[in-house]
Amino acid sequence: MSGYAWPAWAEAILQARPERSFAVRSPSSGQVVAYVADQDEDAARQAVERSVAAFEQWRQTTPYERAALLRRWFNAITEHAPTLARLTALEMGKPITEALGEVRYAAAFVEWYAEEAKRVYGDVIPNHLPHKRLFAIKQPVGPAYAITPWNFPSAMVTRKAAPALAAGCTMILKPAEQSPLTALALAALWQQAGGPPDAFIVLTCADPVLVSQVMFADERVRKLSFTGSTEVGQLLYRQASQTVKRLSLELGGHAPFIVFDDADVTHAVREVVASKFRNAGQTCVCANRIYVQAGIAQAFGEQLAQAVAALRLGDPLDEATQIGPLVDEVGLAKVQRHVDDARQRGARLLVGGAGQGGLFFQPTVLADVSRDALIMTEETFGPVAPLVPFEAEDEVIRLANDTPFGLAAYLYTENIARGVRVAEALEYGIVGLNDGVPSTAQAPFGGVKQSGIGREGGKWGIEEYLEVKYISLALR
Ligand code: SIN
Question: At what angle do helices 63-79 and 155-167 cross, to 10 degrees?
């Protein structure tokens, strides 16, 4: 942490020593970065009371007032982007240059929803009787509870909080135990921008179960938005049913990345690196299985191995670092297991393949991976690119769709007809057609099948926080 001039508000987060607390450790050095409050059920109950009371005020503000406030929050996030990026790099190991990119992505959600707050329209419905007039209006759902993951400590927070606040909802946010500092920083900036403290509450805790139970049992909390694994999402889906909450679930992925032999190979190699090795492979939309048509499989493998061998692994605070550590031991062990299993089933190691000390794992490329290898059915969440050859278009569509997941898929071809045909056939919420990084604030993000429910981002994201109310007026 040495040498960086932290602003006072960030220093306050880093120096806090709450009575009941848990440590946040850097996955790069293993050292404690800060201690944050370990809040319990009582704190959760108080947060609900505050959020419910704040909602009564916040829902009365005009969309123009909310838009102005979100715009000031956007300005504060942009101004303090280097500090937010540094907190992210320290707490979860994302390389600082990439972390800065994430903060800009996070800010883009706030900017988008500052504008979108002013574009929530209702409808006038044609009447069936002469004396009736029919209307549909949109109103905020109510206090919302959000649970966000460690892999995008700022963008997953603003992708939920910005549309909620724009719609007139209040939010209680439970950030991942590994990355609460960036979330606390975003809340501090919200308040600096003039945001009511109780409209956006960050509730930190080491064990989310007890705190979440308070939210699920309280019917005044009207909405749950969760980003994380399918396994946890299924559990939350069940628990949220007690009080029939509105749900948005953004769950696991297992993205196929298909390269046809009519693709621009150099472009496809560059893009697979961007997709697969973003955040050291720890994103839900990362390429997880790379299908390469047989005619170009060898050339593709050689070019990819060369590009991956050049990736720079190192200290997340070094601006030249491209690959940081994995977030924890469990993640590291899974990556090693996937590599070992693929090799036992006959895969050839083109580059990497082993841990590099601590939580670092070498960026890895495996060729001729067997279709029954673990890595072909489970999300790896690490820097390993498995290449699998295929022969025909219908074969690869079948392989790509043969999974319970349906978040993101990618395909590379210079043939427009094939591109459209295959994009339509893929059972996924997001398809990157010659595009390895499709995520952007104004577009819909979300999955089908066991990858989730609902969409975040764009005009779709705010609808998740709005209810439609039908008003039937009888003229007398
Ligand atoms: C995620 O991994 O869940 C988010 C990735 C993205 O927004 O591109």
Answer: 160
Residue 205 is among the residues annotated as catalytic for this protein: no
> Could you name the CATH architecture of 255-440?
3-Layer(aba) Sandwich (3.40)
Atom of ligand 1 nearest to the CA of 151: 2
Q: Which residues contact 307 (CB under 8 A, 6 or more apart)?
A: 269, 270, 273
Supply the DSSP string of 320-331, one letter for each residue: T--B---SSHHH
* DSSP H/E element including 37: strand 32-37
Residue among 430, 423, 424 nearest 460 (CA): 430
Question: Which residue's alpha carbon is nearest to atom 6 within ligand 1?
Answer: 439
Amino acid, single-letter form, for residue 61: T
Q: Is 154 in the pocket of ligand 1 (CB under 6 A)?
A: no
Return the pLDDT at 355.
97
Q: Whole-angstrom Cα distance, residue 166 to residue 170?
A: 9
Q: Cβ(27)–Cβ(198) under 8 Å?
A: no
Query: Is any ligand 1 atom within 6 A of the Cβ of residue 193?
Result: no
- Whole-number Å distance, alpha carbon 439 to ligand 1 midpoint, is 7
Is pLDDT at 161 greater than 60 in this prediction?
yes
Instruction: For residue 283, give the ligand 1 atom closest to its CA.
Output: 2
Cα of 283 vs centre of ligand 1, distance in Å, is: 5
CATH of 8-251+451-472, one of 3.30.310.50, 3.40.605.10, 3.90.1150.100, 3.90.79.10: 3.40.605.10
Q: Rounded to whole angstroms, how far apart are CA atoms 59 and 55?
A: 6
Full strand arrangement of the beta sheet holding 223-227:
200-202, 171-174, 144-147, 223-227, 246-250, 452-453
Give domain limits for the chain.
8-251+451-472, 255-440
Instruction: Tell which one of 156, 226, 380 to mutate to probe ligand 1, the residue whose CB is within 8 A of the most ligand atoms.
Output: 156
Task: Evaluate if residue 413 carries a pLDDT over 60.
Answer: yes
Confidence of residue 3 (pLDDT cuts 50, 70, 90): confident
Gap between the Cα atoms of 279 and 360, Å rounded:
12
**Which sign, positive or negative, has the C-alpha torsion 455, 459, 464, 469?**
negative
* Residue 284 designated active-site: yes
Q: Does the predicted model carry a pTM greater than 0.90?
A: yes
Indicate the top mutation candidate among 248, 285, 437 to test ligand 1's pocket, ranked by most ligand atoms within 8 A of CB: 285
Rounded Cα gap, residues 195 and 82, in angstroms:
22
pLDDT digit string, tens, across residues 384-406: 999 999 999 999 999 999 999 99
What does the alpha-carbon distance between residue 263 and residue 267 come to, in Å, rounded to a whole number? 8
